[in-house]
Amino acid sequence: MLEYAERHSEFSLEEFAYTLQVGREQMESRLAMVASSREELITGFRIFLNASPDNPGGAITNPAIFTGDTTFSSSKLDSAALQSLFAENNLTNIALQWTKGGQFPWEWLHMEERVHRISLPAYPFEKRRCWPELDDVQETDPDPYISSRVIDIVSSILGMAPAEMNPGLPLDRYGLDSILLLQLLQQLQHQLDPAVDLVKLQECRTVMDIAAMIELPPTEDRQPRLHPENASIAPVSWPQFPELILLNKGSQGSPVFWFHGGLGGVEMYQKLAQKSERPFYGIQARGWLTDRTPLKGVGAMAAYYAHIIQSVQPDGPYDLGGYSLGGVLAYEVTRQLQVLGHAVNSVVMLDSPYGKEFQQGAVSRTTAVLQAVNLALASRNFQEPDKFIQTLIHRDELDFNVEEGKLLEQLIKLGNTRGLTKTEDQIVSMIEANVKIQHAYQFDQYAAMPLPDPDAVTCYYFRNKGGLIFGELEPYFSTTEDSSVLDQAAYWKEWERQFPDLHVMDIDPSNHMVLLSEAKSYETIFAFCEALYSGEGITKEFLQMFKDQTKELHGSKV
């Protein structure tokens, strides 16, 4: 660390401290230093390194330096004492108390600051990691290969070097949320084990937990299952398709494929997928949080997705679905599969819009920036909309008359006070992904062509009866755009023309954006899909009964 400080003349002292505080395990042997400049920090390191080994404990001044060994210490502050200590904001006292023992919530020290983790050196002078080894914690020794590969995969997704990862630190401290969790699931499935289960992965808090969950065959048998040898639907790896994510462990019947919505991800389908007895695949947008180039236009995207589907399931019939834009993609994939001579059984559309009101250009750059930060905040409480709206950033809280870098500073500073755990690099990656995906859709150039065989497919359409697109969420996901014209549009009418066998079921969410967030609406959708994707499927009698029950529960559109 001394060498780093000496070689870097303009690093942020606050981010240096923050990285060491939240990104490293709080070990028994502790060194704390209070320095107000890089020069004081360097002086402190030199004083400490030159201190006599016969006097390792105690305090040194100028700058303030404290050391301690907490192995046998009983001097650990309770929650109330910690709150009082941090409220006083006496850095010298905080440093002293930390060296006496206990786990300190360092985030409290930086609530009003815009700070992020930075890349700091590991410890090359010792061939050991400065955090607990996995075999210190697990009852049995984990496979070193698995441990190493998991650390490589997780660190890559988080934008960190493997040496910076603390295997025992909760992953949400590094900014892992439901969005990045699916990227992690996809990489684990493709690089290690196609059978990695989303539900079990969601229960893992640390890298150690993930390594313990992965099961691989003996070393001599480790060959990736890249292609199916027969028609079995056993999980296989498709590394050529990073857009394809298996969201459940269903093993009965043929797969189900759902397509991403307008923001590019499929994280909103996680709980829905668990209701399916059949394998449930989510297909995210090409280029979403990956370095792949997005395809331009709905038609080109659908052609690529049809190719993915046929690689997994060479022959139909197929069952497709999607929320919002995902339903439009499902329609176009259906059309292209029919052109190729394949059968599609069903398409489930969740309030999927089509019409001139929605066929506008891509969102503005400033809207994309606002959406990315608020999406990161909302992902922490996705299915608790009453909670996540309290954490979102309102456009009126921001000054848009500044350059993008300054706008991002405002957003991250506000986000840090509301639970944002992502680093600036992670937020920038989400912004760039959002922008390039939005521009790639070219929705204004798409025209829904008739199906070659419209009578052969059934469409189940869940319509937001209130018709609001953003509703009260508009100022959190749009900078200046007025969505009132969208709220008045009959955006489902096109599907009445294209699907002779169309079943419209009205549900009553607050707005389009929370269709899969509010319990009343998503429980109805889940119940239907659970029956549709069961081994038996649904009958005409069940469908009529379900439609009647849904109308009684939600009412119908006026």
From TrEMBL:
Q: Which Pfam families match?
A: PP-binding, RhiE-like_linker, Thioesterase
**What does the UniProt keyword field contain?**
Phosphopantetheine, Phosphoprotein
Q: Which InterPro entries match?
A: AB_hydrolase_fold (IPR029058), ACP-like_sf (IPR036736), PKS_NRPS_Biosynth_Enz (IPR050091), PP-bd_ACP (IPR009081), Ppantetheine_attach_site (IPR006162), RhiE-like_linker (IPR054514), Thioesterase (IPR001031)
* Any one GO BP annotation for this protein: fatty acid biosynthetic process
PROSITE patterns tied to this protein: CARRIER (PS50075), PHOSPHOPANTETHEINE (PS00012)
Keyword match Phosphoprotein: yes
Location comes to: Cytoplasm
List GO terms (cellular component aspect).
cytoplasm
Q: Which GO terms describe its molecular function?
A: fatty acid synthase activity
Using the record's annotation, list all stretches that form the Carrier domain.
144-218
Descriptive protein name: Polyketide synthase
Q: Which organism is it from?
A: Paenibacillus vortex V453
Lineage of this protein's species?
Bacteria, Bacillati, Bacillota, Bacilli, Bacillales
